[in-house]
Recover the amino acids of this structure.
């Protein structure tokens, strides 16, 4: 008599929305990520941060947008918000789910390559480990400020940041150690002092600024700040390309002020760029455009 064939029935994969609801039920504030694994941009109401949100997201401002509009600041554990009509279109486009570690009292040490993983194994206390595409996430109990680029391939994601959900991982989650907190100590303040003042001169013979209103320039600067702030990799390249885009639009009419440039430098320095890197990127962008 022929023996019956046993068929293994795999559990169907959860959709991003189902995953988000399951995580929220455990206390993890969640948000959807779109293609490119980045948060959804500002809605029309919040475009150019007209709602009062801050471009560097260190303060979400008074915005009460019902949608997933402000990156980590939109993360929530409330199922009625997650399943609300305001979030529905985002879930239809979402490719994966992120969470706000600091909002759950957690810190993620993001190790982006093999060398970073090897360094962590020699330096950091054991804790829960989640494999990533190129490295590992080491997750500790306890929140701290987030810092990118503390060393090659190592970022800290906790307060005012988000991390992709890649599974529960393995190992016992341990308390946030002082050695990790110490990693957030940046270079002395003198190294990251106020951005260098740079004057962008108007080209010879320039007439009236072609931009119709000051709001056009303000929107462009705010969008540039947001692009730099939301970058999760290739920070040097992102800063240079953002500077290039700003200068290509606003650099020839002389409407850029030192205040505008200072805002861009501040956003870049908040991502770990040095003043020298900012200055070099700005100079190279001007050179490329012939300014």
């Amino acid at each position: 008599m022929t023996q019956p064939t046993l068929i293994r029935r795999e559990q169907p994969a959860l959709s991003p929305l189902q995953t988000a609801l399951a995580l929220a039920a455990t206390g993890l504030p969640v948000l959807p990520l779109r293609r490119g694994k980045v948060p959804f941009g500002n809605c029309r109401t919040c475009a150019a941060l007209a709602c009062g949100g801050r471009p560097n997201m260190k303060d979400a401002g008074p915005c009460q947008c019902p949608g997933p509009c402000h990156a980590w600041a939109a993360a929530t554990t409330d199922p009625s918000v997650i399943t609300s009509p305001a979030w529905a279109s985002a879930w239809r486009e979402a490719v994966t789910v992120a969470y706000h570690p600091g909002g759950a009292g957690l810190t993620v040490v993001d190790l982006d390559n093999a060398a970073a993983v090897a360094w962590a194994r020699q330096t950091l206390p054991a804790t829960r480990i989640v494999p990533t595409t190129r490295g590992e996430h080491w997750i500790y109990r306890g929140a701290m400020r987030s810092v990118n680029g503390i060393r090659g391939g190592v970022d800290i994601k906790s307060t005012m940041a988000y991390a992709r959900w890649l599974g529960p991982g393995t190992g016992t989650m341990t308390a946030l150690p002082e050695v990790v907190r110490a990693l957030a100590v940046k270079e002395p303040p003198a190294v990251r002092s106020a951005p260098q003042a740079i004057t962008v001169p108007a080209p010879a013979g320039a007439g009236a600024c072609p931009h119709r209103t000051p709001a056009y320039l303000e929107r462009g600067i705010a969008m540039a700040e947001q692009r730099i702030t939301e970058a999760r990799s290739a920070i040097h390249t992102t800063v240079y390309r953002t500077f290039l885009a700003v200068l290509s639009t606003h650099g020839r009419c002389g409407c850029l002020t030192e205040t505008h440039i200072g805002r861009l430098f501040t956003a870049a320095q908040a991502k770990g760029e040095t003043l020298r890197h900012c200055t070099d990127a700005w100079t190279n962008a001007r050179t490329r455009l012939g300014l």
Remarks:
- The CA atoms of residues 58 and 160 lie 6 Å apart.
- The chain has a mean pLDDT of 81.
- The chain is about 35% helix and 15% strand.
